[in-house]
Amino acid sequence: TLSFIKKGTTQGWAATLTADAIQLKKFGTFNDFVKSMEATFCTTDIKGKALGILQSLNQDGDDILGFINQFKVAAHQSGLTDHSVLICFFSEGLNRGLMRHIYTMDTIPDKIEAWYTKAEAFQAQW
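Given the sequence above, the corresponding structure tokens read:
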């Protein structure tokens, strides 16, 4: 399978893995191969990556449901549970009109689920 890896970052990894195996005269098991590949290419900092997504996630156009779903996944992966922090991230990613609409309500929601509900309702009115 390594012979098919001929481009990009994986090319250097495959060449090094092959050279090391030839030098040691030991290719190892398939599990060794998988562990090496995961260690090199898999994100180990899932919470950190999720926080980065929360910071940069924006509602594109009118797709409020897609935005909410992506936000929920990243929020879960981040491990954040504080509603005020989640609301801060969520409101920053919302369409500016929706954000203003929610912030100018008589009672601003203090739970993230209420923000999801209000954002959906106000988006439906547009």
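The CA atoms of residues 33 and 39 lie 10 Å apart. Try to locate this feature in the token string yourself.
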